[in-house]
Amino acid sequence: MPTRLVDRSPSVPADRLVAELVPPPRFDAVRFSTYVPDPAQPSQAAAVQRLEEVAAGLGRPAAGSSWRRLLGRREAAGPARGTYLDGGFGVGKTHLLASLWHAAPGPRAYGTFVGFTNLVGALGFQQTVQALSQHVLVCIDEFELDDPGDTTLMSRLIGELSDAGVTLAATSNTLPGALGEGRFAAQDFLREIQNLSGRFDVVRVEGEDYRHRGLPPAPRPYDDATVTARADAAGPGATLDDFPALVEHLARLHPSRYGALLDGVSAVHLRGVGTVTDQSVALRLVVLADRLYDRAVPVVTSGVPFDDLFTAEMLRGGYRKKYVRAVSRLGALARDAG
């Protein structure tokens, strides 16, 4: 019999948050050599070359900051600079970031933007800085600013790490100077946003979403009876939930616990998926979609298709890129389920 996600309330201690600063299981085996650049998009091959140079430079002992060692820039003393991979959904930015992590020597950390803010919440700011300052590389995936508090926090954290000579690398769907646009009064935090922007060199990665390139569309949702039958037949690790109940359950869990919520889960089955109209609910579903995708957990659903999970107004708003990414990833997981 399938279990239910709504019956799980995992506790995630701070030491687990630190131990999990590694690429997610989906990216365990990725390397620069496994990234296949699109010949029609020269920026992809250029990005691979750039990050290979960064990885090679990490092993060179030299005076000065990490990024002066790596890139031969700015001989005068100053803060380290990072690499910021900017591009659309599904162009392989996370693949490249994880490949950099795998290629780096010495201690390094990898996490999502939300993961690092959760780490600060668990450890405290100074202890987080102390722990991460010992690393040669810190990789931040899905960099985005959703509120003023995150803006100030990440500005301070990145500044401290950069000044300590830690090599930084990040991915995002938004140029660093435009972070926070459309979400809050970004002009009130312009100094912090400009400080973040000034810490990175931008590497643009062009292309189409590989998750849907040349592939058939994701399967349409099934009826409730089919979802239930598939869950019953799926074996150990399968879960079966009603979508409204899961939405309510997620509201009671901090997003930092969504990964632990999926421990041991082999497939997720959801009945009655509906269009979300509340922004807070939508953002929690984005985090859940990311954790499902990280762990390559297939998803089988009834109700509305994922293209209709978020309202048209949401898809035009400030969080548009988050929602489009979630739809893309959930569609890939539905295709994996067959």
UniProtKB/TrEMBL annotation:
One of its GO terms (molecular function) is ATP binding. Keywords: ATP-binding, Cell cycle, Cell division, Nucleotide-binding. The keyword ATP-binding applies. One of its GO terms (cellular component) is cytoplasm. GO terms for biological process: cell division. Pfam families: AFG1_ATPase (PF03969). This is Cell division protein ZapE.
